[in-house]
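[job 0412] stage=complex_fold ligand=zinc ion status=START
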Amino acid sequence: MNITKQIKVVAKRSSAGLGLFAAEAIKKETWIIEYRGEILTNAEAEAKGGKYLFEINSRKTIDGTTRANTARYINHSCLPNAEPVWHKTGMWIKAKKNISSGEEITYNYGKEYFNAMIKPYGCRCAHCAVKKN
Ligand SMILES: [Zn+2]
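[job 0412] stage=complex_fold status=DONE, emitting structure tokens
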């Protein structure tokens, strides 16, 4: 599959700080946006630290701190509408279901990140917010 079309997205306020929202309807299976950044070894990433480290596998991590990486605004959800998938040369966020224009785009950050960075403070994703009320 070729990624030719630029999907329109917009960063704005969400329940968990800034989030990334669809600015057009996105069909299931669409490659939405690439998680861009410098590829580091996991050791380099650990030494560097930061909020936007995306572990690709047991050896490599993307440092998504760069402003060019709009995908860094995507928040975690326990019931997400998108998922990260490696595609050829990069990590892409792909639609798991049809997403309406105006809907927030989310993916699951994974168990390790969740337990270390989200669970201690309470998850603020829409799915968990509904459960609490
Ligand atoms: Zn949650």
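The helical segments are 42-48, 111-118, 126-132.
[job 0412] exit 0
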